[in-house]
Design goal:
- Its EC number is 2.7.13.3.
- It catalyses: ATP + protein L-histidine = ADP + protein N-phospho-L-histidine.
- One of its GO terms (molecular function) is protein histidine kinase activity.
- The chain crosses the membrane at residues 206-232.
- The chain is of the alpha+beta class.
- It folds into 2 domains: 3-11 and 207-290, HAMP domain in histidine kinase (Helicase, Ruva Protein, domain 3, Orthogonal Bundle); 13-199, Beta-Lactamase (2-Layer Sandwich), CATH 3.30.450.
- It has 7 helices and 4 strands; from the N terminus they run H-H-E-H-E-E-H-H-E-H-H.
- The chain has a 4-stranded antiparallel β-sheet with strand order 1-4-3-2, sandwiched between helices.
- Helix 1 packs across helix 2 (79-90), helix 1 packs antiparallel against helix 6 (200-251) and helix 6 (200-251) packs parallel to helix 7 (267-290).
- The longest helix is centred in the N-terminal third of the chain and has 65 residues, at 3-67.
- The radius of gyration is 39 Å and the shape is rod-shaped.
Length: 291
């Protein structure tokens, strides 16, 4: 096995280890960055939903209540209805993004929690201190990040419509019926705000970035390996081969071969000079023996 082959095997082994370590760390960092990007979008959607809810409570509800009689119930005064309607309109342009105020016992049956949403709500109900939950679930379009926050009955005015059927406004009962959305308790977690954001685009972008990074790293290694091989051949291997061939000829008794001339001031040059001195000393010793 030649010196060049040994050198390349060591270099390839070092590169393989370095590439594996760099690949693991870079992949994890890119995946984390993609997840943080999606989570930032989810929090922005959540903040927008809260803004719609607050605006409905402070601005829309007083105006509509002032202009309607008690015989008419307008769902537009309900913050949950306003926020979800706003996002349903947005979903026409961004169908993979979703916002829902899911409840175990909702007034509007369309707000009833699915199985996985019910699991999130029950997690909030079991843990009073849990204010936010982030999870990833599989959907038909790929991985989806889910950001959820609890919906808690913190205002006694909510119980006017949701404590008992006989206390609810007749107009609301006429619209939604008496079968849902009653029996709520003060400070009870009755549902969750659930934001769903697709992760496919950021993850695909992270994967593409990872492949470009690994490919660039590999290309840089190949370029460095080629340069090192050229330098190793010119500065080490070829001079050593010349010295070895001359030494072989001298050992076979051929004293007419020219001296090895290597004009360098490094270890190879010193080896060449030492070999030439040894050869001259050997020639001198042989002549003295012959005489």
């Amino acid at each position: 096995m030649g010196l060049g082959l040994k050198f390349n095997l060591v270099l390839a082994g070092a590169f393989a280890v370095g590439l594996a370590v760099a690949g693991v760390f870079s992949y994890q960092i890119l995946q984390d960055n993609a997840r943080e990007e999606v989570l930032a979008k989810a929090r922005l959607m959540m903040a927008n939903a809260l803004a719609v809810r607050n605006y409905t409570t402070s601005e829309i509800r007083p105006l509509l209540n002032a202009g309607t009689s008690n015989d008419v119930f307008l769902p537009h005064i309900v913050p949950s209805f306003a926020a979800q309607t706003n996002f349903r309109m947005m979903a026409e342009s961004y169908p993979n993004y979703a916002y829902k105020e899911a409840a175990l016992n909702p007034t509007n049956p369309t707000d009833r929690a699915t199985d996985w949403e019910a699991d999130i709500i029950n997690a909030f109900r079991r843990s009073d201190g849990l204010s936010e939950l982030v999870t990833v679930r599989e959907s038909p379009t790929g991985q989806t990040l889910v950001l959820a926050r609890p919906l808690v009955v913190s205002d006694e005015s909510c119980l006017t419509c949701h404590s008992a059927v006989d206390q609810a406004p007749e107009a609301m009962l006429a619209l939604y019926g008496p079968g849902n959305g009653f029996g709520w308790q003060l400070n009870e977690t009755i549902g969750a705000q659930v934001v769903s954001v697709p992760m496919s685009v950021p993850l695909d972008r992270a994967w593409t970035t990872f492949l470009v990074f690994i490919g660039t790293l590999a290309a840089v290694f190949v370029a460095i390996a080629l340069v090192l091989n050229v330098l190793l051949s010119a500065m080490v291997i070829r001079p050593v081969v010349r010295i070895a061939r001359t030494a072989s000829d001298v050992s076979l008794g051929n004293m007419d071969v020219p001296e090895v001339t290597i004009d360098s001031k490094d270890e190879i040059g010193a080896l060449s000079a030492a070999f030439n001195r040894m050869r001259r000393s050997l020639e001198t010793a042989l002549r003295m023996l012959n005489d």
